[in-house]
Amino acid sequence: MDIFLLFISAIFVNNIVLAQYLGNCPYLGCSKEKSVSIGMGAAVIFVTIMATLFTFLIQKHVLLPFNLGYLQTIVFILVIAALVQFVEMFLKKMVPPLYKALGIFLPLITTNCAVLGVAILVQRKEYDFVTSLLYAVAAGTGFMLALVVLAGIRERFEITRIPRAMRGVPIGLIMAGIMSLAFMAFKGMIA
Amino acid sequence: MASMMKEFTKGLWNELPPFRLVLGLCPVLAVTTTANNGLGMGAAVIFVLSLSNVIISLVRNIIPKKVRIVCFIAIAASLVVTVEMLMQAFAYPLYQQLGIFVPLIVVNCIILGRAEAFAAKNPPHLALADGLGMGIGFTLSLTFLGSLREIFGSGTWFGVSLFGPDFQPFTFMVQAPGAFVCLGLILAGMNFLNVWQAKRKGVELDPNFDAGCAGCAACKGLEKIVNQKKLERLEAAKG
Amino acid sequence: MITVSVLTLFSLGFASAGILAIASKVLYVEEDPRIEVVTEALPGANCGGCGFAGCEAYAAAVINDPDMPPNKCCAGGPDVAAKVAELTGKAAGDSEPEVAFRRCVKVEGNVAKKFDYFGIQSCSAAKLLQDGPDACKYSCLGFGDCVRACPFDAMWIEGDLVHIAPDKCTSCGTCVRTCPNSILELIPRRARVMVFCSSQDKGKAVKDVCDAGCISCGACIKKCPAQCISLVDERIFIDHKACLAYGPSCEEVCVEKCPRNILRCLNPDLIAEAPDTEPARYPEESHVADLNA
């Protein structure tokens, strides 16, 4: 039951991009085409899971025993950067179809608030290992959901008349705001 | 000296982040619930940006090209940890308000973007001017957006109540949707200004120029991907 | 304290660097350098005319597949075909230069509107609403999906119909794939005759909605001495290769015998030239959609 609540909370109530403001840059950049957004969403889920896994282990076994909590930021970001680099090479060699599908997005999300944000968030919320991984899956799914819905809407925008000043990012942001308003309705789901 | 002034002032209007040079939107939306938070975050970014620019400019000839980005990240991360600890020591309430976004300064596109685009190619004094200019511009923008949201959303400014106790605040502004809509409207305003300026000067405006994510080199690669995917979609539809 | 943190960071750094260095050797992927050379030779427009998703995809295909012809890039034309042939060591066959053609003359045929359309200004959207606002459901809808799809800016909307600039058209075929009514077709630039209608109806059904449309009477099919005209998918199909091979000795008897004058002769300047004014980018700027009229 708790897991179910965790998923609902992470995907709908506290959606990582619409309620927690993490990952806005790729959100606006990748939401122009539905297929690109699906690829990006899948890549974010994939990288977030791996990043949370590795950073959790390093925090538990390296940083805490040696009282190096203050190095968290540096170590996390370096680990994530190295990890994504490694994963890209691994996929290119071992799983070429997967590389074709999401390889191009991997460098884009290395230095992304969403991935580092989730890694730090699970530390601050003091989740255990399994809960952190589940949270990572849920957060990534929430990101993908918000991204795909916005992409669907923005594709329609291509053929409607929008005032000159609003075209591009401004109307995308306003649409994101309206979506965020819609997602706020889910707050009542969890008593 | 004149070139230093030029680099400094360009961050104040011409390439004002994040309104003209759309970079680093994550903290912009999150911390601007009050003007005070915006100012505090801006101050942290000035510190990190200017120092990282100087350091990167000093070591730019020593770092090998392949590990460039990782080195920039390492330098920026060290500075962010310093800022984090300074904040925890001297401005704890601010640290609590900013929450997770203090360590996220390290992945702020402004830091990495300016490092790659400017500091890696210019001498330290120019890099310092650029960093300071961008940082101050960023602070001004954040404070402006924060003030806007605070005045309409809570009826206060820097904590000082403006309209008295009977004022019904427009709470929408301090919540997530208000942030998006507010920023969207400001960017639309900047676009409108560009169009009006171009018309006044009689200059033909590049139709592809819009306030959009163009600052991040990562996103530029997306155009190619988007075109490719569009073609694949057409193939599948008619194929 | 300091030593511990410095040591930890150093060891983490060295470990990551070591793992990445080993990985880059172990997981090294051989990439054919010829692919990049061929990609450079191609125009780089990623128009999709070759049938591949982008120039790099075609370059990979032409290098790896021995049967892939080197002249599939229509945007680049014969020069690029020759260059690719040279780089891949294949023989460049001769390809017939083509151009896009609109099979609809609804304005001439006085096709009425079934209803006023105020929906999304897109052909595919309009088609969803009872096959579009025109009385003939196979007509050119005129909202400009093809105009927006064309990577070479060779099309524009004027008078509710699409027009093609033959000097800019590279016959990439993107517009053909985009049109929801399939009224666009690629024909050889040397084509002698063409049918100006894509209706799949016959006889009275066509006459009721359009004064000019093809009624599929079959006169042209019977009369052609080279037998290059046929009915495909309920529409007239002309095999231009056979027609050109037969030559002018038939004196275009198909055109003479067409009762509706919808099968017509084409002259070398077959489609109107580009206008002097800037072509419309958004359909409502040229489409007759004045809400106050």
UniProtKB/TrEMBL annotation, chain A:
Keyword Cell inner membrane listed:
yes
| Location of the protein in the cell | Cell inner membrane; Endomembrane system
Database matches in InterPro entries: Ion_transpt_RnfA/RsxA, NqrDE/RnfAE, NqrDE/RnfAE_oxidrdctase
Protein's job: Part of a membrane-bound complex that couples electron transfer with translocation of ions across the membrane.
Q: What is this protein called?
A: Ion-translocating oxidoreductase complex subunit A
User: GO cellular-component terms in the record?
Assistant: endomembrane system; plasma membrane
Q: Out of the domains of life, which is the source?
A: Bacteria
